[in-house]
Amino acid sequence: MKEDQLVEWKSNWRDEFLKWICGFTNSNGGKLLIGLDDTGKVIGLKNSRKLMEDIPNKVRDVLGILVEVNLLQKNSLEYLEIVIEPYPYPISFRGRYYIRSGSTNQELKGAALDSFLLRKQGLHWDGMPQVALDVNDLNSLDKFKKLALKSSRIDEEILQENNKNLLDKLHLFNGKYLKKAAALLFHNDPEKFITGAYIKIGFFETDSELIYQDEVHGNLFDQVDKTMDLVFTKYLRAYISYEDIHRIETFPVPREAFREGILNAIAHKDYASGVPIQISVYDDKLMIFNNGYLHTGWTINTLLEKHSSQPYNPDIANAFFRASLIEAWGRGIEKIQNACRNEDVPLPKISFDGSGFWLKFKFKESLSKMTVKMSEETGVETEVKTGVKTSDKILILFLENPEISLVDVARKLDRSVSAMEQATKKLRESGRLERIGPKKGGYWKVIERVKKL
Known about the structure:
With 453 residues, this protein is of the alpha+beta class. The chain is built from 15 helices and 21 strands. The protein has a six-stranded mixed beta sheet, covered by helices on one side. A four-stranded mixed beta sheet has the order 1-2-4-3. Strand 10 and strand 11 form a beta hairpin. It starts with 6 loop residues before the first strand and ends in a 7-residue tail after the last strand.
């Protein structure tokens, strides 16, 4: 046994440990073991029997809750086990609120406290009223209407009504005010109202060495599309193979699995935190982080098993469901796993660190060793890897797609267009590359075979 979200060790009892009991009961419950050292070894309690009577009374008088205190013994040494159940309403310790965050106890303040109190009252942050937001400010409803019409998950007659009636049917009004979910879903700049409502993507060489990065802004529907496009055109490299004349691209993370991961992150993110969704790409893995919390009584194992659909942001999830972006049965994790199995790649690992969720995809092969293989008729077999000369990278891209533009080459290699113009000029002068036809409508011909590196 080790200290974690549900277990804490203490060598002796002090009244300040009521904070820890408060943290457990505001989270998923747990056990506080008194009489163990920092390694989890039982060292015993001299006054264990007296504490067995005192602790329940102190918990009741200060916190107003009941706990179970058990007297246990190991190697003739007595110690106490305090079993704490999660409570459906917020519990404070002298006016302060605490929760478990991993194996630590943290006091809630500011937006985190507001979000916690809402959840304990059965309310949701995305359902709170957004002052100064008007129906006429929501200029991204057309995309939703097209998706919803195609999905048949909302009556066509409703989609033909005016925007105010449609938003009302989607339950996006709180009294006379639009909900915060409406700003996130349909405003072109939701960050005008909600800090951190965007996605951040970075490519890292090491945890501390960022190579390049991008930010994806706009309404949530656009964020999904833009993130998919950016990750699969700039951040991930595909394994290219050919069957006869057909080109096959296999990415280290299946598109469907990544898409489900992003949709899950958006639907379950704690937007009150002000922290953007973060996608970290390395040579051998991709990780998605979203700030959020486990439901009371849930563990990571709950997410991995069949479970009910309980989105952190139900109004956002409802709009995504009507647009056929997600299901309504809590099958997101299952779909991610199935997509990985279908393409024979490692299943991702899901973890919760107290402040949010990590979805980690381990690549079957590192990006630096991704191989591009073509049929013998083409006479080309190359390997694209970190450290390859820029000139060779350019030739590889022209071999893959002779009609690719220099703008796209620059984007794929994270270089300027002018630098690519200079590089292709040198390749042509050296006789390694030839331009066939005009600038528009022509194509690139590689003269010299790229050797296998």
